[in-house]
């Protein structure tokens, strides 16, 4: 694993569980916010908000 990949892996591991799961579903599994919302039983707008929060948190963790 390259150093940048390891840093991203560490940053993802440092996210709260809910953000980690939703970001993984969205970006690594290419799932839509609607599909994620349906699977998790939450409103789609909540999924969208968690994705945005998670992106900000990832950038903060990675010092960007």
UniProtKB/TrEMBL annotation:
Residue ranges of domain RNA polymerase sigma factor 70 region 4 type in the record: 6-58
Listed SUPFAM superfamilies: Sigma3 and sigma4 domains of RNA polymerase sigma factors
Gene3D superfamilies, sorted: Winged helix-like DNA-binding domain superfamily/Winged helix DNA-binding domain (1.10.10.10)
GO molecular function, one term: sigma factor activity
GO biological process: DNA-templated transcription initiation
InterPro entries: RNA_pol_sigma70_r4_t2, RNA_pol_sigma_r3/r4-like, WH-like_DNA-bd_sf
Name of the protein described by the UniProt record: Unannotated protein
């Amino acid at each position: 694993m390259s150093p940048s990949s390891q840093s991203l892996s560490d940053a993802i591991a440092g996210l709260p569980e809910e953000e980690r799961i939703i970001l993984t579903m969205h970006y690594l599994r290419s799932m839509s916010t609607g599909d994620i919302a349906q699977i998790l039983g939450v409103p789609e707008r909540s999924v969208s908000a968690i994705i945005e929060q998670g992106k900000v948190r990832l950038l903060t963790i990675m010092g960007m």
